[in-house]
């Protein structure tokens, strides 16, 4: 037996996933070179840009709500332990008090639609935001009952969290056919299909285009999201040092997608993820407006709601046929 064969016999050395591990099967191939042909409107738009507002403020983990900790993802790398962190709370409150309204004004001025990734409790605590969403016609993608990591919860608990969110949305007069967790679990997608109220989820970062999956004998659409063209990079890890970095990054992403379409004729989508407590600040919203203006000036670009991207794709690219044998 040679050295390679000896190594291959060790239990940790594998060239495939272990059968029966919970969660969806990995797909490392995707579309490959054979991309589906999709255009986004009657004018033949090449790239659909989706502005995603993550509305979470008021549903994050806090001592004030009895969680025994204070959430992260805010401006400073400090943490107050064992008690409320009023500084952190106020940074979140900036998003719901000021940031979201600056966003709505910017979207109105530039005449672009938005998608709200909304946590139910956050929306419950600010009814005026809900009414503004309705009057603007922005679509809702469920972002959980609260802004909490779903992988912390059992299958039964997660099923209840999804149901609670849907009931809350219904009571507020909101509808959704899409879902995006803070952090999904290995059960999330299966539970969404089991629930039966969802056309798609966005708990995936591995592609530039929607694609169909098969879950428990049912077709289910995935509309990928992005943490690359996302304002979380202002405050997390190596990312944007200034608002100009955000503009440059998003503009270059759009330019490349347009080049991709020129090469193969297949439409693309671009998700721009923002948060009221982050991009809602003046300098950063100015950068977002600059990118929107740039994108609107490019031929073949259309701004779309995520639900419309999902339905447009589904109309042009139906689920693959599955053999009974």
Automatic annotation (TrEMBL):
Which PROSITE patterns does this one have?
Answer: NODB
Please give the SUPFAM superfamilies that the UniProt record associates with this protein. Answer: Glycoside hydrolase/deacetylase (SSF88713)
Tell me the ranges covered by the NodB homology domain, including all copies: 86-304
Give the protein name, as stated in the record.
Peptidoglycan/xylan/chitin deacetylase (PgdA/CDA1 family)
Q: Which domain of life is it from?
A: Bacteria
Matching PANTHER family: POLYSACCHARIDE DEACETYLASE-RELATED
Record-linked Pfam families: Polysacc_deac_1 (PF01522)
């Amino acid at each position: 037996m040679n050295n390679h064969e000896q190594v291959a016999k060790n239990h940790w050395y594998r060239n495939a996933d272990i059968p029966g591990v919970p969660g969806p099967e990995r797909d490392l191939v995707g579309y490959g070179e054979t991309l589906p042909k999709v255009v986004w409107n009657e004018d033949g738009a090449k790239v659909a840009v989706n502005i995603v507002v993550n509305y979470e403020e008021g549903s994050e983990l806090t001592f004030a709500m009895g969680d025994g900790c204070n959430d992260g993802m805010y401006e400073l790398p400090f943490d107050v332990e064992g008690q409320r962190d009023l500084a952190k709370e106020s940074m979140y409150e900036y998003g719901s008090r000021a940031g979201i309204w600056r966003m709505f004004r910017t979207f109105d001025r530039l005449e672009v639609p938005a998608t709200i990734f909304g946590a139910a409790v956050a929306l419950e605590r600010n009814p005026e935001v809900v009414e503004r969403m309705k009057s603007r016609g922005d679509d809702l993608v469920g972002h959980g009952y609260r802004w909490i990591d779903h992988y912390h919860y059992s299958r039964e608990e997660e099923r209840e969290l999804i149901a609670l969110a849907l009931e809350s949305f219904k009571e507020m007069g909101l509808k959704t056919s899409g879902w995006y967790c803070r952090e999904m679990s290995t059960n999330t997608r299966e539970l969404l299909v089991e629930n039966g109220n969802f056309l798609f989820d966005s708990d995936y970062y591995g592609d530039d285009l929607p694609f169909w999956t098969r879950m428990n004998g049912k077709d289910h659409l995935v509309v990928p999201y992005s943490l690359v063209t996302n304002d979380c990079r202002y405050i997390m890890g190596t990312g944007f040092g200034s608002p100009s970095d955000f503009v440059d990054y998003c503009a270059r992403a759009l330019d490349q997608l347009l080049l991709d379409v020129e090469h193969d004729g297949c439409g693309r989508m671009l998700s721009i993820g923002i948060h009221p407590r982050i991009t809602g600040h003046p300098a950063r919203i100015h950068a977002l407006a600059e990118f929107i203006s740039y994108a609107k000036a490019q031929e073949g670009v259309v701004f779309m709601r995520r639900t419309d991207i999902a339905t447009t794709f589904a109309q042009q690219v139906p689920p693959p046929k599955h053999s009974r044998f």
